[in-house]
Input
Amino acid sequence: MEAKTIKLTVNGCKHELNTAPNTTLLRALRDQLGYSEVKNGCESGDCGACTVIMDGKAVNSCMVLIWQADGSEITTVSGLGDVNHPHPIQQAFADSGASQCGYCTPGMVMSTYALLEENPHPTEEEIRIGLSGNLCRCTGYGQIIEAIQQAAEVMNPTGGQK
Output
């Protein structure tokens, strides 16, 4: 397949790459651009480990062909914050013990970000629905739900649950 020039912005950094049009966003981010925080779980859209924000929406990057992301703004978990300046969601996950092996955590954090952007004070049921595309084999989800509730309160302290 003939390579195509793709332009995208990842975590505020502009990138241009030549790649085959059947390359997934996941492979481009990890293999060509070095964003190893985007995890490769299933490559079939079932686990959510590769979740990123593309143009304001959470997407499984394994299911997006790179040409579909041409011109897009992409945010990965490292685009939210870092160890020295964590995003409130990242801090809440750490404080609540919401990760054990940590493999699913970047995708969980990004799905949480998308959920809280759309619904600043979700109910527990809405959180479960919001995370339905993310699998964790370690935690049992209790601490994850607690972390999301904590992050919602920190990010939007004056709101209330619906």
